[in-house]
Amino acid sequence: MTIIQVVALGLLAAVFILILRESKPELAIFLSIAVGVIIFLSMMNYISSVLYILEELTIRADINLLYLNTLLKIIGIAYIAEFGAQVCRDAGEGTTASKIEFAGKIIILFLAIPLVVVVLETIISLIP
User: Fold this and answer.
1) How far is CA 122 from CA 72, 115, 117, in A?
2) Measured at the alpha carbon of residue 69, what is the angle toward residues 65 and 70, in degrees to the nearest 5?
3) Rounded to an integer, what distance in angstroms lies between the CA atom of residue 3 and that of residue 94?
4) Of 29, 64, 86, 101, which residue has the fewest beta carbons closer than 10 angstroms?
5) What are the contacts of 30-34 at 24+ separation with CB within 8 A?
6) The pTM is what?
7) Using CA atoms, how far apart are residues 51 and 59, in angstroms rounded to an integer?
């Protein structure tokens, strides 16, 4: 799916969501979620290409794949938390959206600790 198709789908969905929001707001939320999932799934080819390139670079640089996997988990959590928060904002639940973002940040911080430790140990090992 090209960006023009994604934008066209998004605009079309936005019009339908605006129409549905006045008569059946619960269906508007489901349509918003469905369009988000469709757009995400249509990007899977691009995502898999990026993942393949990152994995190849990691192997060439002789870096443990555990670090790449942790980094990818962090990126995934950030995108999922953002998607969930945006859906909640679309439903008028701004406070729930903020809580989702807060939880995402805490989980990202937790997952980033091993990466920070490795970076700090590397810096310390370089200091004479």
Assistant:
1) 21, 11, 9
2) 115
3) 28
4) 64
5) 32/87, 32/90, 33/87
6) 0.75
7) 12
Residue 40 CA to residue 9 CA, distance in Å, equals 12
Cα 102 from chain centre: 14
Structure tokens at 1: 């799916």
Give ∠ CA 12-15-21 in degrees, rounded to 5: 135
Residue 67: CB partners within 8 Å, gap ≥ 6? Answer: 58, 114, 115, 118
Blockwise average pLDDT, block size 10, the chain, 128 residues: 92 92 88 90 92 93 90 94 91 92 96 92 89
Give the whole-angstrom CA distance, residue 112 versus residue 114.
Answer: 6
The three-state secondary structure class of 62 is coil
Contact yes or no for 128/98 (Cβ under 8 A): no
- Hey, what's the torsion of the CAs at 7, 8, 10, 13, to 10 degrees? 170
Q: What is the pLDDT of residue 78?
A: 96
* Secondary structure letter of residue 60 according to DSSP: H
